[in-house]
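Sequence, please.
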């Protein structure tokens, strides 16, 4: 019997309601949207806060306002937040809120973005747009992210924006330093979800691109998923190739700001997975597949 497909939904990210009215922003909206997605077959919910500049316990409480109603209905739900913005780029300020959420029993995954990348697009003159921004995660960030996962019993949710990110993750894995429950996610780029235009970052969403990442992964026993930023994963060869190769899917309005809704993305994931003979994983099945710490 084939392994069920884990569907992660990145419900909001930087997508504004002015761009897509369907995006959930307030905690109550996030809770309702997440529950609808889980009911349709999603296993993991990733959220951003509408207050990205608060840190620590205050940041955790804002996330908790969205997460508690989810757990009231789905006790085995898997939710996790993003980092906090810190003008001084201090690792503890960026990632420390995860400690409070973990100790409250509200998250089972933690962030691991093991690298930095210029998130932006090409300007009309053919050069990088001045609207591009550096998404900075230095060695200290990576070390703290891994430490938090170890200390709080969180499975690392690993974003792979560029191949260099995967090099870092595989080195940690091979050294026995990667926390249990790791989930590697390849972020392909069809467009720039952080402002539009031709992206300056990432691998294009092609079969060759996925095969390249899988060649790096080799025979390591690391569950993996694919996402397409700035476009629809179901409009590319990536979704089918991923399911065919035994991988999982990440969808949602963070990655595809022009999608009809998060629920629509989950429904599309179910259709293609059913067609290819793989069911969607429940949260408890996803936890078992990922071997999340208990």
């Amino acid at each position: 019997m084939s392994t069920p497909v884990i569907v992660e939904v990145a419900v909001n990210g930087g997508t504004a309601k002015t761009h897509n009215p369907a995006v959930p922003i307030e905690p109550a909206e996030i809770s309702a949207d997440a529950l609808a997605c889980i009911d349709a077959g999603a296993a993991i919910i990733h959220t951003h806060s509408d207050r990205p500049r608060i840190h620590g316990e205050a940041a955790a409480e804002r996330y908790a306002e969205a997460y508690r109603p989810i757990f009231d209905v789905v006790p085995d739900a898997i939710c996790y937040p993003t980092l906090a913005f810190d003008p001084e780029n201090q690792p503890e300020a960026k990632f420390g809120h995860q400690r409070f959420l973990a100790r409250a029993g509200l998250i089972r995954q933690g962030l691991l973005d093991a690298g930095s990348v210029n998130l932006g697009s090409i300007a009309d003159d053919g050069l990088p747009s001045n609207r591009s921004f550096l998404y900075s995660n230095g060695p200290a960030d990576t070390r703290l992210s891994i430490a938090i996962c170890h200390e709080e019993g969180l499975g690392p949710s690993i974003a792979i924006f560029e191949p260099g990110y995967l090099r870092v993750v595989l080195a940690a894995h091979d050294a026995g330093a990667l926390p249990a429950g790791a989930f590697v996610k390849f972020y392909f780029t069809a467009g720039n979800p952080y402002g539009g235009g031709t992206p300056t970052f990432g691998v294009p969403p092609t079969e060759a691109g996925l095969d390249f990442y899988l060649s790096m992964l080799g025979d390591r026993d690391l569950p993996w998923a694919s996402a397409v930023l700035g476009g629809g994963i179901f409009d590319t060869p990536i979704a089918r190739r991923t399911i065919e190769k035994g991988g999982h899917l990440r969808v949602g309005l963070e990655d595809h700001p022009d999608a009809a809704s998060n629920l629509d993305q989950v429904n599309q994931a179910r259709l293609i997975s059913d067609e290819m003979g793989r069911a969607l994983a429940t949260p408890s099945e996803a936890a078992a597949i990922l071997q999340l710490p208990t």
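The domain at 7-290 is CATH 3.20.20.70 (TIM Barrel).
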